[in-house]
Amino acid sequence: MKIRMQEAEELLLVYIYFYEQEGYMLNNGGESYKECYLLLDEVNDWIGISLESENMIKDHIEIHNGFINFADNEWTILFGKGLQIHNKVKYECITDLHDRFYRGIELILVKSIVPNISHASNLLRIS
Questions:
Q1: What is the pTM of this model?
Q2: DSSP symbol at 25
Q3: Beta strands 87-98 and 101-110, pairing class
Q4: N or C: fewer beta carbons within 10 Å in the chain?
Q5: Cα(113)–Cα(34) distance, rounded to whole angstroms?
Q6: Is 84 exposed, middle or buried (0-12, 13-18, 19+ CB in 10 A)?
Q7: Domain of life, per the record (predicted)?
């Protein structure tokens, strides 16, 4: 899993992807306005996302310290192992799919909602 981020005024454009972008696969599906949750720790730092789905996530990139889990029809994606979820904020995301596997998840965040992104820094890939 890797993350790309780009600042745009009061927004933070985020793309979490599970395949190398240089890969040969094209998206053949996706979901717009998919309900997801921003996951926050005890001091409201952003530590990951979760979403309900029967589609699959498989990390095809070196995972570093990230954590992906599936339980009770819900995917939990944390930016580090051992992080504890203390709060969830309902949000929307856009997904890219190939044959029912998520290729990536896009979020357009208002910066004030996630003021601290330090937990994602070990997964950041600079464009």
A1: 0.86
A2: P
A3: antiparallel
A4: C
A5: 18
A6: exposed
A7: Bacteria
**What string of DSSP letters covers 57-97?**
----S--TT-EEEEETTEEEEESSTT----EEEEEEEEEEE
Per-residue tokens: 10: 């009061």
- pLDDT (tens digit, 0 to 9) for every residue of the chain, 127 residues total? 888 899 888 999 999 988 765 555 556 767 888 999 999 999 999 999 999 998 888 776 665 668 889 999 999 999 988 899 999 999 999 998 888 888 889 999 998 888 788 888 878 865 5
Q: Which two tokens stand for residue 37?
A: 């949750």
Q: Which tokens belong to 123?
A: 């997964």
Q: Partners of 6 in the beta sheet?
A: 13
